[in-house]
Amino acid sequence: MSNLEIIIGSQMGSAEYVAEQLAEDLESRSISCNVHEQPDLSNCKSDTWLIVTSTYGAGDYPENLLPFISQLQAQTDMSRIRFAVVGIGDSSYDTYNHAAINGEKLLIEKGAKALLPTLKIDVLDEALPEDTALEWLPEFSEIVTAS
Ligand SMILES: Cc1cc2nc3c(=O)[nH]c(=O)nc-3n(C[C@H](O)[C@H](O)[C@H](O)COP(=O)(O)O)c2cc1C
């Protein structure tokens, strides 16, 4: 059975809800998920990560994700990690989905491997962001299971 860490960045609950839906779907595909609402690197034992985050401020990470991002910034080699990012943002901001984009960039700089390009969900377009994420999920799940 595959095992992964779901890392949530959310202030008002939308990204958290999407992450919970993804976790439920992944579990039904026999992929065991540890869901982190207050992510801490020391609790992420699996090398496979799914980051689900919204964006705040001028392209900032949600507050609950900031300590985790600081922990990542302090790492020198994250080549053992493979990951994907789902971003939930609002395209009326110039900094559309910047937390997702910058999170992906940071992990790649540290040597981690992106399994798929970041999925960017626009709350202006998508009435139900979880539906878009669930449509994307099978591709991610196949990669995780196959490797
Ligand atoms: C104060 C504020 C600032 C925001 N800044 C951005 C931003 O810079 N870029 C973006 O893509 N979305 C931005 N958003 C939109 C949120 O990311 C979006 O509403 C998201 O669904 C919130 O998710 P959450 O409920 O998980 O926190 C902002 C929303 C608020 C309320």
Can I get a quick summary?
This protein has 147 residues and is α/β, with parallel strands linked by helices. It is built from 4 helices and 6 strands, in the order E-H-E-E-H-E-H-E-E-H.
Count every beta strand, where a strand is a DSSP E run of 2 or more residues.
Answer: 6
What is the CATH class designation?
A: Alpha Beta
Which molecules are bound besides the chains?
flavin mononucleotide
Distance between the termini: 12 Å
The proportion of strand residues reads 15-25%
Largest sheet: 6 strands, parallel
Structural class: alpha/beta
Kindly report the name of the CATH homologous superfamily. Answer: Flavodoxin domain
Reading the helices and strands in chain order gives EHEEHEHEEH
**What is the domain tally?**
1
CATH architecture: 3-Layer(aba) Sandwich
Q: Name the overall outline.
A: globular
Low-pLDDT segments: none
Query: Portion of residues in helices?
Result: 25-40%
Q: Count the helices. How many?
A: 4
The third-level CATH topology is Rossmann fold
Mean pLDDT: 97
Radius of gyration: 14 Å
Keywords: Electron transport, Flavoprotein, FMN, Transport
Domain Flavodoxin-like: 4-141
GO molecular function: flavin adenine dinucleotide binding; FMN binding; oxidoreductase activity
Organism: Pseudoalteromonas luteoviolacea NCIMB 1942
